[in-house]
Amino acid sequence: xxxxxxxxxxxxxxxxxxxxxxxxxxxxxxxxxxxxxxxxxxxxxxxxxxxxxxxxxxxxxxxxxxxxxxxxxxxxxxxxxxxxxxxxxxxxxxxxxxxxxxxxxxxxxxxxxxxxxxxxxxxxxxxxxxxxxxxxxxxxxxxxxxxxxxxxxxxxxxxxxxxxxxxxxxxxxxxxxxxxxxxxxxxxxxxxxxxxxxxxxxxxxxxxxxxxxxxxxxxxxxxxxxxxxxxxxxxxxxxxxxxxxxxxxxxxxxxxxxxxxxxxxxxxxxxxxxxxxxxxxxxxxxxxxxxxxxxxxxxxxxxxxxxxxxxxxxxxxxxxxxxxxxxxxxxxxxxxxxxxxxxxxxxxxxxxxx
Length: 354
Ligand SMILES: *Cc1c(COP(=O)(O)O)cnc(C)c1O
Known about the structure:
The protein is α/β, with parallel strands linked by helices. The chain is 37% helix and 15% strand. The strands form two sheets. A seven-stranded mixed β-sheet has the order 2-8-7-6-5-3-4, with helices on both faces. The chain has a five-stranded mixed β-sheet with strand order 1-11-12-10-9, with helices on both faces. α1 runs antiparallel to α7 and α8 (258-281) runs parallel beside α10. The longest helix is centred in the last third of the chain and has 24 residues, at 258-281. The N and C termini lie far apart (46 Å). The mean pLDDT is 97. The protein binds pyridoxal-5'-phosphate. Pyridoxal-5'-phosphate binds next to α3.
C-alpha cells in the first residue's frame, strides 16, 4: 500500500479471481468458462464492429437492448447492460444498499458480494446455508435489507425453485431482491417471468457462462423501470461507455443465434450428468448441480490434495481452503474430452495412493 492510498480502502480485501496461469497450457476447469467458442455470428458481428472503433460506443446500447428486449419479452426501459454482471452487481450495491439497508446474502455464495459490500462500505448480513448447502427461503423473509441470491448458487450449483423465490419476494415488499442468474440456463428456473408481478425484483444475467463470451465482458439486469433508472444514474455517474462496441455487437449475435446457444447448453448439461455419475461411481459426494460446474468431495482424499494432483497433471479446478468448503472442489464442465482427461487423472492418482 502506498502512503497515498485512501484510508477508506485501507482495509479492503479484493476479490480473488480463479487462476489464469500462463506457465503452461492447462485444461481449465476452474472459472466456469464455456469450453466452446462464441457463436460464429457473435464473432462476425464483433469483427464488423471493430471497423468503427474510432467512435465511442453507444451509451444507451440501443441495438443490443432492442435485441434483448425481444429475446426476454420485456420493454427496453426494463434492461441495463454492463461490463460483465460484476459491474451491474456493484451498481446494485451502490444503488440499493446503505447504512440502513444492509446487503443480505448467504454465507456461502459468489465471493464478490462481500467485496462489493466492503468497497461501498455498506453493512453485510451473511445468512448460513443449511448443513446440506441449500438456501432456506424462510431465512430471507423480512430481510430488512437488500437481498442478493445467486440462483443457482455458487459454488454449490444448487438451485431454488421459482416458487421458493416467489415466497421471498412476497415476504419483502419493501426490499429489493436481486436474483443473480449467472448459471440459470444450465437447468435453473428463471425468475424473469415474475417481473410483471414484482416491482422489487431485479434479475441479473451474464453472457459469460451460457453465451460463451466471458472475455467480452457483458452482463445485464432486468427489472422494474424505476430500478433500472436508478442503476442508470449510477452508470452515468461512473462510466457511460461501459460496454464497448465489439462486445455489444457480439452480444447481438449471441442472442440471435438461439440454435447454437441451446446446443451448447444442452451439451454441457449432458456432460455434467455423465461426469456426476462417473464421480459418484468413484466414491465422490456430488451436490445436485443446475449449473455448468460440479461441487464434489471425496471421503478419503482432501480437497487440496486432489486439486494439487490435478494441477501437476495440467488440469485446473477451483479449490477453496475455508473450513466449510475445503473438502470440496468446484469443477467446471468442459468438453467431453476434457472431462475424460479429468476422470482418468483422478483414477490414476487415487489408484497410486489408495
Ligand atoms: C460468473 C459470475 C458472475 C459474473 O459474471 P461476469 O463475467 O462479470 O458477467 C456473477 N455472478 C455469479 C454467481 C457468477 O458465477
